[in-house]
């Protein structure tokens, strides 16, 4: 058996088309386009690349992009002032402060200062709480993208056994909550979990969000399971830089029913779900019926 490769890039392109349609419809109804503000503090090279690609995608999809760059010496008060200005700007529907932040700034304080109505990254405690309560909210982009791929692949997830490996606020916790909301029976695993391989073997759905190259082995995976690989680790193989996931892709491919590659699986979904959340924020803030795009 060879698993189906879940093409995150193709799914993200399809979602982009739906987003563009909704941007046009939003402009027709409101007289403006959705706006996304991205704030970068410092010069972390990876963060600069992420911000650049978010700005590019926002404008490509017909939305308005606002970019704010602060020096890495910026104080928390300076950043909070920028966030307050963005909260008050009616042209802006979504605010994303690129993490990580320099050490003099407390990330949770900054996230908590973003208006929950503009928190398109879904990290504000109010949105995290609303997800648990099953209320409309913004969901962190990466787990939302994983859920879209799972539903596209499997349809109704009701009754399935799912395991999420990793319990971060950004990925693992919201992923587990999303799967629970879809009526899965969810196991959350982390660095202190005992007998991880045995627990993974029970799962119809495996989401690996750890950051340890090729940790999930073929012998751990139930035949036919759907495997979503969130992890990204840069390694050097034969002198060449390579990005690898948390899953031993070549070996697991022979056992799983379907799995995402790295790169080309979850990665392209993360940026597109940010665009999705920005459009949703615009409709909500404008008091218009919110379109369903997946
Ligand atoms: P994180 O905050 O470092 O969390 C990692 C989680 O993995 C923690 O909960 C940790 O457990 C758990 N863990 C560590 N070692 C483990 C082990 N041996 N067995 C089981 N669990 C273990 O990372 P993150 O932000 O969630 O990101 C996870 C990975 O996804 C990273 O590789 C990141 O680069 C990638 N990522 C990719 C995208 C994308 O768009 N493709 C987006 C976001 C993240 P404890 O809580 O017990 O320490």
Structural write-up:
The protein is an alpha/beta fold. The chain folds into two domains: 88 residues, Leucine Dehydrogenase, chain A, domain 1 (Rossmann fold); 128 residues, 3-Layer(aba) Sandwich (Rossmann fold). It has ten helices and eleven strands. The strands form three sheets. The protein has a six-stranded parallel β-sheet with strand order 1-11-8-7-5-6. It has a three-stranded parallel β-sheet with strand order 3-2-4, sandwiched between helices. It has a two-stranded antiparallel sheet with strand order 9-10. β9 and β10 form a beta hairpin. α2 packs across α10. The protein is globular. The two termini are 29 Å apart. Bound molecules: NADP nicotinamide-adenine-dinucleotide phosphate.
Low-confidence runs: none
The rounded Rg comes to 19 Å
* CATH topology name of the largest domain: Rossmann fold
SSE arrangement, N to C: EHEHEHEHHHEHEHEEEEHEH
Bound molecules: NADP nicotinamide-adenine-dinucleotide phosphate
Helix content: 40-55%
> Mean pLDDT, rounded to whole units?
97
**Which architecture name of the largest domain does CATH use?**
3-Layer(aba) Sandwich
- Give the strand order of the largest sheet, numbering strands 1, 2, ... along the chain: 1-11-8-7-5-6
Instruction: Please write the CATH class name of the largest domain.
Output: Alpha Beta
- What count of structural domains? 2
Shape: globular
Distance N terminus to C terminus?
29 Å
